[in-house]
Amino acid sequence: MLSVRYLETLVLLVFIACCITEAKPLRKRSISEMQLMHNLQEHKQVGERQDWLQEKLKKIISPSNKPQQGQAASVKSLLLKEEFKKSI
């Protein structure tokens, strides 16, 4: 049977081996890989910002305030339409 001293030594060696292998990366990343990862992260952040902004704009702009058929509407005319709808 194995002695306790032998098992302690074996556990210590396994622990040290695990610590050493975790500290070193398996391989270095190339410059193009780093740039690709950076670009992907930047693309995700832009998408998240656009989604956030779209949600904020949905809260501000209601569908009834949109000008019809591409006509430019001023703030004054939009306010007048809202007041007219409230009075009805």
TrEMBL record:
<comment type="subunit">
    <text>Interacts with PTH1R (via N-terminal extracellular domain).</text>
</comment>
<dbReference type="GO" id="GO:0005179">
    <property type="term" value="F:hormone activity"/>
</dbReference>
<comment type="function">
    <text>Parathyroid hormone elevates calcium level by dissolving the salts in bone and preventing their renal excretion. Acts by binding to its receptor, PTH1R, activating G protein-coupled receptor signaling. Stimulates [1-14C]-2-deoxy-D-glucose (2DG) transport and glycogen synthesis in osteoblastic cells.</text>
</comment>
<keyword id="KW-0372">Hormone</keyword>
<keyword id="KW-0964">Secreted</keyword>
<protein>
    <recommendedName>
        <fullName>Parathyroid hormone</fullName>
    </recommendedName>
</protein>
<dbReference type="GO" id="GO:0006874">
    <property type="term" value="P:intracellular calcium ion homeostasis"/>
</dbReference>
<dbReference type="InterPro" id="IPR001415">
    <property type="entry name" value="PTH/PTH-rel"/>
</dbReference>
<keyword id="KW-0165">Cleavage on pair of basic residues</keyword>
<dbReference type="GO" id="GO:0005576">
    <property type="term" value="C:extracellular region"/>
</dbReference>
<dbReference type="InterPro" id="IPR003625">
    <property type="entry name" value="PTH"/>
</dbReference>
<feature type="signal peptide">
    <location>
        <begin position="1"/>
        <end position="23"/>
    </location>
</feature>
<comment type="similarity">
    <text>Belongs to the parathyroid hormone family.</text>
</comment>
<keyword id="KW-0732">Signal</keyword>
